[in-house]
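Whiteboard transcription, Tuesday session. T.W. wrote the structure tokens on the left side:
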């Protein structure tokens, strides 16, 4: 087990905006609680809470990898509309202590799954309400995940 430091920095921070993942034209993850992991010179990786990912289209595979900084990763294949992305999703279910923030969260290979940031104002634009209304229905109340 290695600890991140000046020679191999790793930072984890909450995303400022909402993030989504899309496969085969369908949103399979949508979260306002994503984390951004920045590791050394690698591109940033978005980690989604499992609760915000449509797991019904994923199956665990036998693939496993080891990162000396994060621990052991497990993988999932996505199958939707007759298309599949093999080992396109990974998770650290028991990461090393320095990486506990990503425990159980899911990340996607961006060459297989589209991962993109969405401004909250785009998802739930302010709208005028009739003062007599008791509630407002947002886009997210109507459409959380498409399939």
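and on the right, the sequence the group agreed on:
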């Amino acid at each position: 087990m290695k600890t991140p430091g000046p020679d191999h920095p790793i930072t984890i921070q909450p995303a400022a905006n909402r993030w989504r993942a899309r496969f085969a034209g369908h949103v399979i993850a949508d979260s306002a609680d994503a984390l951004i992991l920045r590791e050394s010179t690698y591109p940033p990786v978005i980690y989604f809470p499992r609760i915000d990912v449509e797991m019904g289209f994923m199956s665990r595979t036998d693939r496993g990898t080891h990162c000396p900084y994060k621990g052991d990763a497990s993988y999932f294949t996505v199958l939707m509309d007759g298309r599949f992305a093999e080992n396109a999703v990974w998770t650290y279910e028991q990461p090393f202590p320095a990486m506990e923030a990503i425990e159980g969260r899911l990340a996607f290979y961006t060459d297989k799954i589209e991962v993109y940031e969405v401004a909250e104002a785009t998802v739930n634009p302010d709208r005028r309400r009739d003062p007599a209304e008791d509630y407002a229905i947002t886009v997210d109340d109507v459409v959380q995940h498409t399939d």
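Someone added at the bottom: The two ends are 40 Å apart (CA to CA).
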